[in-house]
């Protein structure tokens, strides 16, 4: 359609007006120059379900989006934090190479290995490695977590008539909202366990909330009230879980 209508055009699907952008330059305008304006776009039904009603940086209102961007930029995505987390990336990549090397001559699932490596890197940055003397979190397995993430991605990309005809959203004709809510419940179980352990560690001021070199992981920064003297960067538990869901994807 871009060859016919150009790099930007609009179309109406059901009762919803959509704007399509098909060039790198225009994409930069949308996500960088006019990012605050386009942050107010209406999320899909499944996006609202997985983000606790639009409480993360991808699907949120303009003011909340601005605060989240400030928080992520200063904490999780800062150059300093990314450099400090380099050891996580090196460790997981080396572990992956060792695993692949040990299976020479056999059939291996590269997709599964690559995904597990990526998840391990991100989760280490989010809530840290298992510390010596700290019991490993058994609330989920890698396979279970991978299946949940894949299902969420599938539901987010699936066409849903409720998005095109909002009057039908309450009926959930295709069952997409119910399916996404089920996946959110699965993630809730995982995140609740991790957050509970981290809160206990912070309250006891033990090493469980801090990396071995004294650096806090992203979750500890979000949960520690001393890190958020500014009320605009203070988050409740649902908002924290919504952020964790975003970082996982």
From TrEMBL:
It comes from the Eukaryota. Transmembrane segments: none annotated. GO terms for molecular function: heme binding; iron ion binding; monooxygenase activity; oxidoreductase activity, acting on paired donors, with incorporation or reduction of molecular oxygen. PANTHER family: FLAVONOID 3',5'-HYDROXYLASE-LIKE ISOFORM X1, OS08G0547900 PROTEIN. This is Cytochrome P450. It comes from Artemisia annua. The lineage of its organism: Eukaryota, Viridiplantae, Streptophyta, Embryophyta, Tracheophyta.
């Amino acid at each position: 359609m871009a060859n016919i209508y150009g790099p930007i055009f609009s179309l109406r699907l059901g009762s919803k007006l959509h704007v399509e952008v098909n060039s790198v330059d225009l994409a930069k305008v949308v996500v960088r120059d006019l990012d605050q304006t386009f942050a107010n776009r209406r999320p899909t039904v499944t996006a609202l379900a997985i983000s606790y009603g639009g409480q993360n940086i991808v699907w949120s209102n303009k003011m909340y989006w601005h605060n989240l961007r400030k928080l992520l930029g200063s904490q999780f995505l800062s150059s300093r934090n990314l450099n400090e987390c380099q050891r996580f990336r090196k460790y997981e990549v080396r572990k992956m190479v060792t695993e692949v090397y040990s299976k020479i001559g056999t059939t291996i699932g590269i997709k599964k290995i690559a995904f597990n490596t990526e998840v391990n890197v991100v989760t280490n940055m989010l809530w840290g490695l298992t510390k010596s003397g700290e019991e490993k979190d058994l609330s989920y397995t890698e396979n279970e977590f991978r299946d949940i993430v894949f299902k969420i991605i599938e539901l987010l990309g699936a066409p849903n008539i409720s998005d095109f005809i909002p009057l039908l959203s309450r009926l959930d004709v295709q069952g997409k909202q119910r399916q996404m809510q089920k996946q959110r419940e699965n993630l809730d179980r995982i995140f609740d366990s991790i957050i509970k352990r981290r809160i206990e560690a912070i309250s006891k001021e033990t090493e469980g909330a801090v990396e071995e070199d004294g650096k806090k992981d992203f979750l500890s920064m979000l949960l520690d009230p001393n890190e958020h003297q500014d009320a605009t960067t203070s988050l409740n538990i649902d908002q924290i879980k919504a952020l964790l869901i975003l970082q996982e994807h």
